[in-house]
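hiii, so i know i said id send this last week but things got crazy w the move. better late than never?? heres the sequnce for the chain we talked about at the cafe, plus the structure i predicted for it. fair warning i was half asleep when i ran it
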Amino acid sequence: MAENMGTDDVVVAWQRGDEPGIVEFVVTTTHVGEFQALLAEQHVTATSDPQPVRGAGTDIVTIVAAVAGNPAAWAAIGLAVRKFFDRHRGKRIRVDENGLAEAQNYSAKDIERIVRALSSTEQDNTDADERR
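okay and structure toks below
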C-alpha cells in the first residue's frame, strides 16, 4: 500500500484467501460498506475480516473476504468490482490554500462531506495555532 494514501482514495486489490473458494479484497475502509453492498446485489457472500492488513496504511484499509466457490460466483464478483470502479471512474479533487478548488464526478452529498471535513481540519489547525 502506498504510504501517502488517504482515506478518500479508492483502493481495491485482491489476494487469495487462506481457504479454497475464498478471495480477499483489500478495500479502503471508507468504501467497505459500498463494496459489500455491490457484492450482496450479486448474491455473493462477503464479510469484513477482522485480521490486520499487512503493510503500510493498515489503519485505512480493510480486508473483505468473499466466497467464490464456483464460476458463477466469480462472474458475479467480477460484475460487482466493475460496478464499484464505474462509480469511482474519473473522480478527482483538488484543494488549495483557499479550500476546495475543484471536484469532478462527486455527488452533492460527497461534496458537502468533503467541505465539512476541510472546515473541521481548518478549525483544528486554527485552534492549534492559538494554543501555541
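btw The radius of gyration is 18 Å. thought thatd interest u
miss u guys!!
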